[in-house]
Amino acid sequence: MLDFEKNIGDLSENDIQVIAASCDPLEKAQETIDSYKLTFTVGYGLDAAETSALTGAFYDDKEGYLHATGFIVAPDGMIANAVYSTGMLGRLVAADTLSLIKYLREKKQ
User: Fold this and answer.
1) Which domains can be identified in the chain, with CATH numbers?
2) What global pTM score does this model have?
3) Which entry of 21, 35, 56, 108 is 20 to 30 Å from 73 by CA?
């Protein structure tokens, strides 16, 4: 999330909205928002099992948390790209997100 916040200017200039969501309760999510000084919307309180069933995100049923999952959603609401992580690696990063969206926009024209 910090990478996206550090690049929020470039993303915003390209009409790209960033939204995050977490299984954390409000208080824990607010700590993350405050710690990283996040300016984009952060949802909270997701049910890990339900979210996994809906999105295909991996989750640790023992610990009850979702592994990082990222979606690039097209203007029509369709998923243009998805990245599913099963551990510490494999996350969307701002530069790749911006690059892919620019490519998809050019390809569409």
Assistant:
1) 2-102 (3.40.30.10)
2) 0.88
3) 35
